[in-house]
Amino acid sequence: MTLQLTGDTLTISDIKQFLSDEDKVEVTAAAYERVKQSRATVEDIIANKETIYGITTGFGLFSDVRIDEGEYNQLQVNLIRSHACGIGKPFSEEVSLVMMLLRLNTLLKGHSGATVDLIEQLIFYINNRIIPVIPQQGSLGASGDLAPLSHLALALIGEGSVYFNGEEVDSRYVLNKLNHQSLQLQAKEGLALINGTQAMTAQGVISYIEAESLAYQSEWIAAFTHQALNGIVDAYNEHVHKVRNFQEQMEVAERMLDWLEGSELTTRQGEIRVQDAYTLRCIPQIHGASFQVLNYVKEKLEFEMNAANDNPLIFDEGDETLVISGGNFHGQPVAFALDFLKLGVSELANVSERRLERLVNPQLNNGLPAFLSPKPGLQSGAMIMQYAAASLVSENKTLAHPASVDSIPSSANQEDHVSMGTIASRHGYQIIENARRVLAIEAIIGLQAVEYKDIDKLSPKTYDKFQTLRHICPSITEDRQFHKDIEAVAQYLRDAAYNE
Q1: Could you read off the pLDDT of 360-410 as tens digits, one per residue?
Q2: Comparing C-alpha atoms, which of 196, 270, 187 is closest to residue 235?
Q3: Minimal CB count within 10 Å: which of 30, 219, 256, 287?
Q4: 461: left (phi over 0), alpha (psi -120 to 50) or beta
Q5: Is pLDDT at 68 greater than 80 in this prediction?
Q6: Active site residue ranges
Q7: Which pTM does this prediction carry?
Q8: Pairing of strands 131-132, 161-164
Q9: Of 297, 298, 234, residue with least CA distance to 269
Q10: What is the phi/psi pair of residue 238, to 5°?
Q11: Strand runs labelled E in 252-329
Q12: Helices (runs of H) and strands (runs of E) counted in the chain
């Protein structure tokens, strides 16, 4: 299939399908026309020798330095080379690919002055999966994601490293192999490539896709625990949740009842106990609140995915053309959203760890063996899996500290407030990976616990999940290296984010 880009209509669902189906992109005729019009404005500025930031002047504190006419293009190349000082491990290939997709989409809005050549270079790289190697660290998230996006731009001009056919190679090598020319940057184009929030937003999109999937997965995982502990279904009754007014809470309660429909292991209030602990009874309230966070984050990411966040911006008003220096590159709205995402996902892990603790604790697990050990004493069973989950939950509490409350001035105090949104995005993804492993541990322990109870009494829907998971994680008949099981189940959960 082909993903059509307009500059205005891209959704997270589009990106998820694009990644799942290895789609190609194409640009609408109307978007091409906007690109041509905004480029004509840049050419007029050059012809009229106007003083416009980033086109005929330097950058940042050098915005008052006039550039000689014959050096406009070199200015853009110098910008990319000097700003490509990213640090640390690279973003995943998916994030870098989405970064190119988002940068292309914002250029198509027609406010950046890019050439058609630049648009077509991005399309060529995306469609041939020539993916820039982009270090994760080094962005303040305010003047755009300058360092990460400079590494993206380097690849387009044949000077950076890329992933191609599963290998990391020099971009010049790939261009020669495919008989394709490197991009020759024109006036304004270097700036048009790196002013923007595409690094934090791309990582945010990937994080959202995986976090949303994890939130849904947490429900069937919790359903195993609920049945293993003979949980009470009355707490999920729709009457309880309608009077609270939160739609997401109502939906979680409805889905939990669906997962548990037909189970012979669930109970009603008063049969064994009157009330369950909060980690079972309040699943709709707790998980529902995380879905509220996800809905907020999705809205803000999709706004930004279709935004013009370059500087300066070009506006064709018919009888006049405006070129305005503003601050749409500032990542504060995205930074807040991604810090919020960290809280929502952290709590999914937090409550999961408390549930799995109930499964392994002989004082709380309704007669199940201590730590679900096949031979308590001789074999430790799931004892240390709970330790590992607790460690990840604790680490998440540190990572959940909001990056957006920090700011350090840059460019000799010209850029005196920054968002740190890219740090929020990176820490957010670490939290998601940690939470996924916590939920994988709950799933492994939940599977074992319901075996002790009788899998034939499981609800039909969770019975099907049980059979699927048992092909990935065998029953615990003796102590083994459980980290392999944790990683295998976590990988299953991650893969499902793109395949379901």
Answers
A1: 999 999 899 988 898 888 988 788 999 999 999 999 999 999 999 988 888
A2: 270
A3: 30
A4: alpha
A5: no
A6: 53
A7: 0.95
A8: antiparallel
A9: 234
A10: -60, -30
A11: 313-316, 321-324
A12: 18, 9
